Amino acid sequence: MAQRQLVIVDGNEAAASIAHRASEVIAIYPITPSTPMGELSDEWSAAGRKNLWGTVPDVVEMQSEGGVAGAVHGALQAGALATTFTASQGLLLMIPNLYKIAGELTPFCMHVTARTLATHALSIFGDHSDVMACRQTGFAMLCSGSVQEAHDLALVAHAATLRSRVPFLHFFDGFRTSHELAKIELLEDDDLRALLDERLIAEHRRRALSPDHPVLRGTAQNPDVFFQAREAANRWHAAAPGIVQQAMDDLALRTGREYRLFDYVGHPEAERVIVAMGSGAEVAHEAVDWLNARGHKTGLIKVRLYRPFDINAFAAALPKSVRRIAVLDRTKEPGAVGEPLYQDVLAALSEVELTDKQVIGGRYGLSSKEFTPAMVVGVFDELSKPKPLKHFTVGIVDDVTRLSISYDTELDIESGEVVRCLFYGLGADGTVGANKNSIKIIGDETAQYAQGYFAYDSKKSGAVTTSHLRFGPRPLRSSYLIKHASFIGCHQFGFLDKLAVLDNAAPGAVFLLNAPYGKDEVWDHLPIEVQQQIIDKQLRFHVIDALKVANATGMKGRINTVMQTCFFAISGVLPREQAIAAIKKGIQKSYGRKGEAVVQRNFDAVDQTIANLFQVEVPQAATSKRRMPPIVSDAAPDFVKRVTAVMLADHGDRLPVSAFPPDGTWPTATTQWEKRNIATEIPVWDSALCIQCNKCAMVCPHAAIRAKVFAPVALAGAPAGFKSVEYKGNEWKGDQYSLQVAPEDCTGCTLCVAVCPAKDKSNPQHKAINMRPQLALRDGERVNYDFFLRLPEADRTKVHLDVKNAQFLQPLFEYSGACAGCGETPYIKLLTQLFGDRALIANATGCSSIFGGNLPSTPYCVDDNGRGPAWSNSLFEDNAEFGLGYRLSIDKHSAHAREILQKLAGVLPGDLVRELLAGDQATETGIAAQRQRVLQLRLELSKLQGDEPRRLLELADYLVKKSVWIVGGDGWAYDIGYGGLDHVLSLGRKVNILVLDTEVYSNTGGQASKSTPLGASARFAVAGKSRPKKDLGMLAMTYGNVYVARVAFGAKDAQTIKAFQEAESFPGTSIIIAYSHCIAHGYDLAGGLDQQKLAVETGYWPLYRYDPRRAEKGEAPFKLDSNAPKGELGNFMHNEMRFRVVEQATPERYGALLAQAKANITERFLLYAQLEKPEAGK
Amino acid sequence: MNLKTTYLGFELDSPLMPGASPLADTLAGARQLEDAGAPAIVLRSLFEEQITREENNLYSLLEHDDAYAEANSFFPQASEFVLGPDRYLEHVRRLKEALRVPVIASLNGISLSGWLHYARLIEQAGADALELNVYYLAADPDESSFMVEKRTLELVRSVKHEVAIPVAVKLSPFFSALPHFARQLEEAGAGALILFNRFYQPDIDPELLEAAPTLRLSDPSELLLRLRWLSVLFGNARIPLAASGGVHNALHAIKAVMAGASAVQLVSVLLQRGPAYLKTVREEMAGWMTEHGYESLAQMRGSMSLARCPDPTAFSRANYMRMLQSWRPHPPIGGPTERTAD
To answer: In chain B, is it the N or the C terminus that has fewer CB atoms within a 10 Å radius of its CB?
Structure first.
């Protein structure tokens, strides 16, 4: 058997490697966790990589998965070999076409990273709920449980679809397999050719639609024939299992790796057997081997071909000795007799008349919930019980319906020959990247098998990463997190106060700590809990001041190389010299193209590491005076203490079912309890210099710098360090003004300092706010901030809504997990300041739904009256419709309330009714008055009996106007949700649409959308987009009765505020397209505001407001708010990596694109000039 | 007319060459210059700051790699990006393939650090020579003039240590003892001296309290400073001198050669009038020389240097005193007709 190349790849790359080589047309759309397969395909094709037959596959990004399914269906009908990749909601959107493709017996293979479907909540993680929703489509379903299988069975699927004409859905577990790095044997082109029969490809092409031999498909059939015609395909489906087995056998002949439709492993005379599929089956395999080695008779059936379900093959795989079977499903089907695999097994046993077996069904691993050998052992234990639970769950504690089974949480069955390493790092410190590198080094330099899995928290700034690395002499099946690590690396000293870093250390493990202390001082700085664990577990404790080494070698705070070197120096997985040489080779490979200096600096860091790495002598006793601080303040609400805090401590797995609301409802205003302390520097106010413009508060993405005006008496009891000065200006004459930073919530992005216009006249470097180290300020400013929060909020009815005064309104969106310097959140924050106390927000899936609603904590919050934005996320594609639905309900409720009010006019005070019906709510004063009237109404109603007064009590709040906001990114507004958005625009109902335009799909890693500008490189448009951005504003204007604004808060904040007010006050539909700088643009976001200014100045992002109300006055509705373009567009573009990569890769092409972009701007401004003419209003 | 000259070891047909500028940023631009008779092409400088900025940029982008479950990075194949410095090398390679005349690359920087490796990479990319622009604003009161000179010399030595190709040093005019320093530069391995780089002088925005960047093209008044120092250095320095800054026509070039320049670099005027203007200057220079009975450039070079000038007092303190004491409104250099020609 030929020796093949061993490579370290993840499951996505393993599958995509086959798909790209075996396809001609690839349609893609980003969705986690399948996105990398599309990205790789796009990059390979952009780089000219050819398929098996010598041509480069054509990769096209569509506007949604629904679009992808249509495109591949068409491509298949026209005779191409097509593929696609998706997951979760994306897969659901493809279902209509899956029926078609299967119904037409079309060879087609798609690859799915099985992911949770959104139900009570969205989850990006893995389970089988998406693929199970496709089991009825007629697609064959083939499941892989490991990275090697994702590679092998991808080929089997491509081969079998050609042979059987039944389309295939090849799937593997999202994240657990799709993102796990493993050493696999790479199939060669000849392997693929051997399995993919060219004659069958020719037959597929012959069946293609062609005017040269025309046929017709997609007929409409009637009761007379549809049924029979539907049955005509039976033979093909029936033959598919045999064909799959043949393809598996063909692969085995070439590789030696044997697969069966149902692979049995375990004792030949097993009495207890588990049936499972996916990565969970690998875990079960490990547990079965361990149990049987200890004298048990257990077994496992790994389901590979789930559809068509071959009952005979299943029965054949099952040892005759089996008495009891536990079927494990990684999905939930409420209301069903049992989960799908369970039902299939029961039906199969019944059909083959093996009715003497007792079968139970269990759910495990939803949303990538850990599934461990200990749980498998627990399932076998359950099977041994006299009366096992017929339906159970494993891996959670269900204290409500008592369905969960118990297991020994401490059981460790992993072999001692496996090195297990666990690293805690920050997203920004490069820990994961370095670990990926280490796996490659060990994989390449040794015969060891390697496995890497990386877990991230859900923050986009200051995110914690954990890396789980295993190395061992045999292939690794342990697809679960490391619980008993022989090496623990803690790359940030601060984690010791927040996370139980050493809980997962095995006795005698090596503990590497990055600390700003030397080997003699570090011990005393540890919390006592950490000291005790080090002593109890007899850990070998090493310390390095990695930041010092990194800074000394010009690495500017990047500690990854230093920590990687430490790992190799003390873990002993490789001889030290060999490891260092390999690290350097890796550095050369990673950074060689970035310049010699970068390489040299990394080399220096490697060289200086060893001299700075020390073993710490561990004392006999824990002596620290410091304990780990509580996760949240004692002042936090009960729910936050009982639930949120547990999740924040990374112990969410321990929460029982009873801790949770059953319907996904979650309290708002909980980010305030999560003091993240991620900024190294925070702004400090110089009250003497400050001109009180409040621009800093306006641009702050995290609401971490705030301004208040208040009566001087409120200063009673102020902490000594609290700063306030007399208010400058007439509005609040005599009041005090204070500008206060939230020291523990600030991310240190520096946007506030960048925007500050007040400079010291003799030293303009010094502004009215300046960044200073946080640690020294933390305690004092915490007290100040607490006091500041208790100061009274401004009276909304008295706040004049300009840039300055709007910042006296309380932000009802605070301390989100958005990126430091985020360009989206300032708009959302402003929205909540202006309208938050009466806002309902519909949020499309994307960055804004993640930082807006990803647990553990929630950033939308409430004012002193308990009012604040009510927020929900439905889906990605339906957000406009979802928000419209809010409006329909509100209007109905409001109308109904008014109807009842009119009916009750006789029994209620006449003035009250009249005013409630006619009260002007155009201003905050009007709204406040109406709220008062509603209070009075409630009082009056409580005196009345009957259905109508009761109903009116329920609906009374709807007499106060509500503000509906439909919020989402450009991926939603321009692409996947555009159809719905367009329809909502056409209806003219009173909803406000806010498009946070980053010009890419930011959340999934910067894929091109129709908003991506000409000349920009993005994922799925690597070479640079050759067509201009879609003009969404212009499209909206064509309706004539929609308010449209284009804004950029960093360029003209006053125009932004005006647009928000006009949009909200406009009686019909409004849309605001908001320029949002983003990390996907490729520059340090500290410069985000300058870039916004340049964008507007150069005409790249014109500002305007189109207000149909102006037409009523005979004016042009369109008003351009930015000046004619000046300055070089090229300068704006050159600052951003997204453009510069195109410039560098293809300078001539870039020149042409730039020229075209300039010409487009000129044309656009000519058009705007036309629109501004008064006759345009007529 | 024999305009031949020797500069940086190259036998050139003419002393008139484009200076470091964006003129040769594209292959087409470089070809136009060659067609207009440029005897060598000098490329725009690769700045130390460019090199380090790209590195810093890289670090800020890397912060978002592998930091979030839904996106391993935000750019396609980040490791494959060609950063600015490497593109420069690629450009050198392409020009070398396409041009017949020597290609002189240019490095602009001052610190003794990693970026100096680029000198070697530039050589490897095929550059025939290197201009080292040591533009530096001495703003540190703890740094003496001796230290500034010492560091510059070390820089030249370091670059010479990296490369075998000739290295010209482009100086700023702000050295207190230029002849002595020039000699040391020569000893440190400089193959030519270029007088001078243009001092970048940002304006001030009094409203915003910000420095306002300005980019001003040279004008002929700047030539005088060059003429004076060329004339002082000529004869003292064994290595060739080049004039850079303020040369806008043939007469200016002739003056520069008379003061001692072996090469004359033009930038602003070529940016204003296009590369073909180089040919005009060359023709006019040859015409003037024929008209005035010169046989070769060599005959003219250094004729008005301090050592050979018929009236050396014109450069001396005595003349300075006379000029100041007899001040009257004076037309700028070349006279008003010349300015309109500009």
So the answer is: C
